Structures are given as C-alpha cells and as structure tokens.
Records
---
Amino acid sequence: MNHKETRPFHSFIPKKRLMNMVQGEGQSTDSYRLKFENQADVIQNMRGQLYRDSTLYIVSMDTYNKKYHELTTDSERDTIKAAATETWKASLFIVNSNPTKFDQLKKEMHNDYISGNTDSYPTTFNSTCNRLN
C-alpha cells in the first residue's frame, strides 16, 4: 500500500479540526489531551494519516539512515509511519497548547533547537503530555 492517505478528502475536515484545535484558557492538559486524542482517532479511523511526507523522510533518515522510499520491508515502513505519527502529534500538541501557560516552555524548546539541541523536543505524544503536566 502506498504511504499516502487512502481517503484524503474524507479525513480533511477532521484533520483541519485537529490542526486548529487549541488548548483553551483554563482547560486542563488532561482535558485538552482527551479532546486531541479523540479527534486524532477519528482521522485514523477514516484511514487518514497524521504526518506529512517530510516527517516520514526525517524519521526514516534518523532511524535507518535511508530515505523513506528506499525502505525495503513493510515492517520498516510501518515503524517509520508510527514514529512519524507520534512526532507529528507531539509537535502539534505543543504548538497548540495554551500560549499563556506554556509560552516559556515553547521558547526554551525553540531556543534549544536552533542552538543545535534537537533532542529537547519530545518525539512521542506521551512524552509531550508528560512534559506539559
């Protein structure tokens, strides 16, 4: 199966909702996480992808030192898709977290990243949620 979404138009509206979802003032991280995960599940149940092709490339290079299209087994591709999904969800969750509450954390992570410390940004959804709690 091709790595692209099998039904891109069906999952467009739920994906747009997820990308525009922001943690509200006074909303707990747990409440935001539940809402976020529910919307992500809707997209995945519609066979939509929760990553971009560029994320597949980056994760594949980091994991196997190969471009995604150079991977030879379904197991390798499945591993990369799962890791790319986690990375994309982690990034979006932080970006859309409460700006008042987490602005300093976002600035620190951004400064770490541009200083070359690329490991400071969480790469899994769970590690992101833990960092925000």
---
Amino acid sequence: PMIQEEIVHVPRVIQQERQHHIHVEEIVDVVVEQRVEEIVHVPVVQSQERIVQNPVEIQVEVPRVTVIEKTIEVPKIQIEEKIIKVPKVTKTFIDTTIQNQIQTIEVVRPKIVQKIVQRKKPIIQEEVRQVPKIMK
C-alpha cells in the first residue's frame, strides 16, 4: 500500500471592519455682501463774509499845541579872497633811440635718414633620398 499525501488549502475566515459612509446634508445661510451704488447729491457749502459794524466810544487825550519862541544867533558868512601864485610848468621831452642789433647764427645739424631695407632670404629646400641598403 502506498500512502499519498495531499495538500489541501482550507480557507480561513478573517473578520474586517467595514467603513460606513454616511452622507449628511447641512444647510447654512451665508451672508453675501452686495454693493449697491446710489447717487447722492451733496450740497456745496459757500462761505460768505459779512461786515458788521459795532460803534464803540473811545476817549482820546489830544495834547494842546503851545508855541515857544527861541532866538538863535547865526554867524554871518564872510568871503575872504587870497591870491596865490602858482609857477607855470613847462613840458620837457627827451628823445632816446634804442638800437637793436640782430645777428643771425646758422647752426648746421646732421640729418639722420632712417630707411628700412628689405632683403629676401634665400629659400633652402631639403631633398631627402632613400637609398636601399644592401646586405651581404
């Protein structure tokens, strides 16, 4: 008799918690700000100045005018004449002549002449010959 082994898979039961989704509806009043434009006429204020006169009584002391006489002695101006002799000035001129002598001096300076001379360099060509080597 031959014994055979057989592997059997037995399912196992595992308990899992389920997640429940409950939909809740909530109604909330939200205040929405609305802008309303309104044209309002603002009255323009004009200022006016009025001059109001209030009569006021003021007592002022006015000094009385008095006349005072004074006698002042003023010296009399007398003119004195004096004759002064002034010598007459005669003009004298002195003529002076100045002689300027000009001597011309000639200076001989050597003149340096710079010249660039170009020379052609000869072209050297190398000639290489291959000679076979003879071996014995």
---
Amino acid sequence: LEEDLEWTSRNTELLYVLDTAQAACSHVQSNHHPLVSARAALKDLINCHQNSSKMLEFKEKMVSKVKTMELAGVSIKFGKKVTDLEKKKHPNKTEDELQESAFKRFCGFNWLGNASRSNNTVTDALKLDFLNKNDNYPDYIEAAYHLASTMNSADPGT
C-alpha cells in the first residue's frame, strides 16, 4: 500500500483500511489478463450505487472503486467537448491535466447520479446552473458529497 496523506490520517478506520487493502489486491492476480482487470474495475465504478448505505459510507465506497480503477491501470479519455469545458475552468492546465480533471469531475457526477434519490435536487440544480452558463459540477467525489450534504440539509423535505 502506498502511504499518502489520506492513509496517514485514516489508517485506523477499519472500513477505510479494508477498502484500501481490497483495492490494492484487486485485479493484480497473475491469472487475470490486464483487460479483464480493467473491465472489472470500470464496471465496479459505474455499478456502484448507494442503496441503503449512508452518504458518507457511499462516498468511501466510490473512492475505493476509483482507486481500484487506478491500480488496474484504467483511465477514460474524454473528447474535445469535455476537455474544452475543463479548459474554461482551468485555462493553464496541460492536456493530460485536463483529462485528469475531467475524470475527477466524472467521478463526482457519477457519485451524485448513483446516490439516493434525495440528490435529485442537487443534480437538477446543477443542470439548471449549466443551462444558465454556470458550470458548478463538482470537481471530485468529496466535493459532490459536500454539495449534496449541504443542499440536502438545507431542504427539510429530504
């Protein structure tokens, strides 16, 4: 396991440790072709849904799926339309940095889209903002979680 700031601050949380260890071990078996591992990692990310778990647990689960994808060597190459949107937000980034930024935003949006129905308020607000030329889609899963937590706690109907 690679030691990073997140690992250092969270290595005593059992769920985080188990998810991180699973991500590190997944898809590195010698009997798996790298394409099998890549497909499984991408499928796990897309099919990761909140179901009955709490928002925080779901955020952790989605972050571990992204780590699994990265460990499996999977990335998504976005087209010009997506990278042009990223360039508007980050005009000084290189093409590789724009791709990475687009992937992180995709993961954040995927988290919102696969979270509970209470996040429909959040996604509807983001769509309306975008139609009004304001791209407020979150930059990553943590930002999506924060946005959903803030908006859902402000709305007593959720």
---
Amino acid sequence: PVNSTLDIFSVGTLLSAAGVDLDAESFEGSGHSARYEGLTMMVSINYFNTVPWRGMIENPGYYYHITAIPRNAYGQHQVSFDPYQTNRTVIAMHGILLQAEISGALAGFSFNNLLLQFTASLALLTAAVTAVNYIAMYLLKYRVYYKAAIVAKTA
C-alpha cells in the first residue's frame, strides 16, 4: 500500500533470502524438487532498542532472519468420498509453510531498579572489604604488618 509502514515481501524475495531454489532437489536422496514436495521456512523477527556500548536508542528496530528448515517437506492431504461411498479421492497439496518466531528485548529505565542495584552492590562491596580486612589482620603470615597498615592509631 502507498504510504504504508508495513514490510511486504514477495515469496521470491523470501526464498532468495533463505537461499532456496524451488527446482533443486528438496534434500539429498529425496528424488523430488522443493517445488514438488513443498518446504517449511522460519521467519525470525528480532526486536531491539539497545545498542552495545551506546545504550538505548530512540526508535526500536528489528531485523529478519529467514531460513528454510532442512529435510522438512510440507504437504496436506484431503480425502473426499463420492455420495455413495464407492470412490475415494485423495488430493495431495504441497506448498510453502511460513512459520514466524518473534523475539527480542526492549529495555527501559527504572529508577527503582537502579536504586536496588546500587544498594545491593554497596552491600556486597562492604562485605568484600570486611572479609579482606579480617583475613589480612588475623589469618595471613604478615598479619602484624597488615594490621598496623589498616588500623590507624591515634593519640
């Protein structure tokens, strides 16, 4: 459509992006083309709004990753009977099955999460300093020197 923001792809474009030739052998040993047997394709859509080392970006983006699933022909069979149940007709239909997988991560700033992370990191830093000081002053070989360096004596 004119002035549309939709992404519209032809089947030929999707096949080309997945590297599929409909007239080539469907898979090794099948003896038939992908056009004859049908095939299954996966369209992965990955959303993001962060860029490494830059942080959040103003407008979220997305990209497509299109693959043909190997050795996975696609077809459906429809069985129909005549009104007197004497003849049966089986219609074998093969085509392209498109499956979509939507994933990604959209980030946002939260002051509560920042405060929580900051508080937790300060608590861990305090625990690490306390543990190192204890080990240095009471357990190591040169604890007398370490204790004199760590503890400042005043008048």
